[in-house]
Amino acid sequence: LSTREKLGQVMIPRLTPNAVKAFGGGVGRFIEAQTPGGCHAFGGDPVATRRMIAEAHAASKVPLLITGDLERGAGQRVEGGTQFAGQLALGACQDEDLAYRFGEAIAVEGRAAGYNWAFGPVVDLSTHPNNLSHIRCLGGDPGVVSRLAVRILRGMQDHGMAATAKHMPGGGGDDLDSHLTTSVNGDSREQWFATSGAPFKAAIDAGVWAIMTSPKACPAIDPECGDGLFPRPVMTSRAVCTDLLRGRWGFDGLLVTDALTMGGLTMHFRRLEMHLACLSAGNDMLLFVHRLDSVYDYLERCLDDGRLAPERLDEAVRRV
To answer: How many CB atoms are closer than 10 A to CB 134?
Structure first.
């Protein structure tokens, strides 16, 4: 691959009619111009979704990763698919067989619609009464969440759908919205490994293929977070993404960022600089990248002047 093709492999733009419209309305022209490694499909009509995804694959030099928010089932995005209750219902049941079948259903229906990578299960612990993602979580007990999440991800991956444990370092402990501001996990280091970190470690040990890093901060495990009153998110932290996940826990799966459009990230960085910060930290793919030409030009300059190591890019592309 050329340098620009390598950079393309770490990008996940939206695959929507509006995104394609800027390239004359043709999915093939969009893919040929953007050369992404993956695309995020929002679903809708199942026939139209499958057709768009098939056209994207046909135009891509390298097979595409097609991502989707399917944490409550394919019906969350695709008309006619099964849409389950939030994961909290599974947490209430505490039925590991049901959790496996839940993951299996997501995989079978999601694959039928054209997806091959689901952003789920959510392994955050819900420990705050006003947590905005309460019903998306499996509960507040790290043991229960770990056991059920492992069964969900195995149900997915046993049936050909890549699973994603999210959102590192674990949320659910406050009532802040990461779309708007930087939520902070306030655990001590010892508490984090025993609670919020436990489901991620369980997912890694179970062979999860991907982990999503988030625009949340966790000062106890991140000496790079900066000002304690205004900490930077872990998705830009080498101490978390590389030293902890890769080095301490041995995770060699794929690290994908949460959406780069989220306020928890954008309030700390200029637009182009945040792409470099996330890649340098150890993330392998960047979610919801837009205006890709300017991003490619910027990152090529970073490769030329040493701000981005070529080895870091090659490592990311290998995982993709």
So the answer is: 18
Q: Which residues contact 229 (CB under 8 A, 6 or more apart)?
A: none
DSSP 270-309: -HHHHHHHHHHHT-SEEES--SHHHHHHHHHHHHHHTSS-
Q: How far apart are CA 68 and CA 76, in angstroms?
A: 9
Helix (H, G, I), strand (E, B) or coil at 11: strand
**If we measure between CA atoms, which residue out of 188, 205, 105 comes closest to residue 147?**
205
Pair of tokens at residue 295: 């991003």
- pLDDT band at residue 153 under the 50/70/90 scheme: very high
- For 103-141, how does the pLDDT look when each residue is reduced to its tens digit (9 = 90+)? 999 999 999 999 999 999 999 999 888 888 889 999 999
Of the candidates 264, 241, 254, 181, the residue with the CA atom closest to the CA atom of residue 274 = 264
Write the pLDDT tens digit of every residue in 251-299.
999 999 999 999 999 999 999 999 999 999 999 999 999 899 999 999 9
Question: For the whole model, what pTM was predicted?
Answer: 0.96
Q: Tokens 């001590």 sit at which residue?
A: 188
| Alpha carbon distance 277, 234 (integer Å) | 11
Q: Which of 244, 243, 238, 212 is nearest to 225 (CA)?
A: 238
Q: Which residues carry out catalysis?
A: 258
Longest dimension (CA), the chain: 54
